[in-house]
Amino acid sequence: MKHPLVTYRMILFLSAICTFLSTHSAIGGTAGILEGTVREKQNGEPLPGVNVVVVGLGRGTVTDASGHFEIQNLQAGSYDVRFTLVGFRSHLVKHVAINADLRTRLAVDMETSDVLLEEVVVTQERPLIQADVTSSAYFVTSEEIKVLPVTYVTDILGLKAGTTLEGNIRGGRASEVSYFVDGLSVQDMMGGGLGLKLPTSSVVNLSMYTGGFEAEYGNSLSGVVNIVTKTGTNDHRIFLRADKDDLFGGTQVSKTRELEFSVLGPVIGDRLFYTAAVTGIWSDTRWWQDFQRFFGSPVEKEVNGFAKLEYLFTPTLRLATQLLYAGHDWHDYDFSWRLNLAGLPPEHRTSYRLAAILSHSVSPSFFYNLSLSRYSVNARIADGTKEGVLASEPYQYDFFLRYIIGGERSWWVRSTQLTTTAKIDGTAKAGTEHLRPILRYCEARTAQDLLRQAAPGGAAAGFQFGLFLCAPERGSVLPGQIRCHEGWRSALELRCPI
Q: Is the dihedral of CA 45, 48, 54, 55 positive or negative?
């Protein structure tokens, strides 16, 4: 009897939430804030009217009467910042790290000068304590990723306290961790965890939160991981990496070969930029001594790709389009089948995401982001039709050897996931307060067809509006999660500073 693909639809509305937040932004962002104070080195007096420019971006501001400056909506990355004022030596701070959803603070002392002298060059160091981070968080930059011996960006998570190499955080399941790329979800709705993988050379910043995140991420019981991708510059850059784990022989290897290639640069100088990266991984797995009797090399193949085009209408208005792709083909391993591994069906998984992100800084005190994405995951187990698998030879178990010695496993699966997301969020500054509205719509469809029976699939659509107001000196109110009747969800939790 044939079992048709079953799809259920469920509509979920999230009620409006009005809350006070601390000075840091929501977790799923891609930009940070640069702020600081400029003073005269000789007497420590604040300097008003100092020109502050982010080199290469055309973004900048001027210090106010108290010597304070702030530049909002800077994409995560590393920048050089120049300070100039007539009668003072030019001051250049190199390698200023901007992390997504965080504030980077600079304290600059400028020297007086009656003649033109060489500018003062200093290198910014990461502060030991991030004062505006109220949650448990870790941050990794592209420079750190380059020197770490990792194949995937997510391998870095296993190097942090409270995590495992399998992706578990604080003892929770891998499905309880939410993953975002450039502020948009790439979650595997069925199996949990990251739905697709990225080349390491395409990542500029990674942040992991293990506690204290907002109720917007109420389904993230263990942690939230946000990955920010690179953007092209006015300089062409090429990166090539090759790796082989059995270069010097030995048997304690997986016979893995890796090749990664990435390029970035300008298409039109100061206007249109490109970024592209691809990684190929071929492996015989750690069980290659058993697999080699049944399959040729490689047993497992994986390709991960990333492409991005970004157009700058003005220094404060930019549009980015991107494509993420991941393909994975492999054979599963079961110890009881080691004498008949050819009887296990091959497995395939393909996923991609198309996204467009518009970012606009309307004024020094207001900016907004508009995002639209379509994310798809398709997985299958066994080739051919379901009927062909049903007609296959049943497997034979040897009770003396305690191994399966013949036949095939009757296992056939087809599953699909499709998620469409539209999101707009903004930040408006009024004095020391930040007003942050969020409007998001998400529709997700899942369907799965199994051998002999169809598993229920589903569809869900959500609409969310949040109004966030920052007033740290008055305490903070954060939304918690309370489940109410008919799928509505809203709550307020009061937290006061010590």
A: negative
Could you check whether the bond before residue 298 is cis, i.e. omega within 30 degrees of 0?
A: yes
Asked if residue 415 and residue 353 are part of one domain, the reply reads: yes
Instruction: Looking at the structure, tell me whether residues 254 and 326 fall in a common domain.
Output: yes
Do 161 and 199 fall within a single domain?
yes
CB neighbours (10 Å) of residue 25? 23
Q: State how far the Cα of 331 lies from the Cα of 285, in Å rounded to an integer.
A: 10
User: How far, in Å, CA of 169 to CA of 162, rounded?
Assistant: 6
Cβ partners under 8 Å of residue 35, min gap 6: 68, 69, 70, 71, 103, 104, 105, 106
Do residues 178 and 187 lie in contact, with contact meaning Cβ atoms separated by under 8 Å? yes
The radius of gyration computed from the CA coordinates of the chain, to the nearest angstrom, equals 26
Assess whether 45 and 154 both reside in one domain: no
d(CA 129, CA 105): 12
Shared domain for 87 and 168, answered yes or no, is: no
- Distance CA(387)–CA(439), nearest Å, equals 46
My answer on whether 56 and 185 are in the same domain is no
Whether residue 384 is found in the same domain as residue 238: yes
- Ranges of the chain with pLDDT below 70: 1-28, 114-120, 122-135, 212-219, 391, 431-434, 452-498
CA distances from 86 to 51, 63, 70, 115 (A): 10, 14, 21, 10
- Of 96, 123, 150, the position where a domain reaches its end is 123
How far from chain centre, in Å, is Cα 302?
Answer: 20
Q: Are residues 13 and 44 in the same domain?
A: no
- Domain containing residue 106: CATH number: 2.60.40.1120
Q: How many domains does the chain have?
A: 2
- For residue 348, give its domain range: 9-18+134-495
- The Cα 25–Cα 23 span in angstroms is 7
**Identity at 384, one-letter amino acid code:** G
pLDDT in tens, 289-326: 999 999 999 999 999 999 999 999 998 899 999 999 99
What is the 3-state composition of the chain as percent helix, strand, coil, each rounded to the nearest 5? Answer: 10, 55, 40
Could you tell me if residue 61 is inside a domain?
yes
Q: Is 394 exposed, middle or buried (0-12, 13-18, 19+ CB in 10 A)?
A: exposed
- What is the reported pTM? 0.77
pLDDT at 169: 82
